[in-house]
Amino acid sequence: MSVTIPFPTNSPQRIAAVNAASHERIEPQSHGVFECTLTTVTPLCLKTHFAHVRREMTRKPPQAYLPGSSIRGAVRAMTEALGGGCARYFATPPSPPGAVRICNENGMCPCCRIFGFAAEHDTFAWASKVHFEDSDIAPVVWRRYPVPPFGGDPAAPGQGNGWLTFRHLTAPAPGAGEECVETGVVFPFRVRHHNLTPAEMALFYHALTLGGLHHILGFGKRCGLGACHIVVTNPPSPVPNAAAHICAPAWKVIQLERA
Ligand SMILES: [Zn+2]
Question: How large is the average pLDDT for residues 183-209?
Answer without folding.
Answer: 95
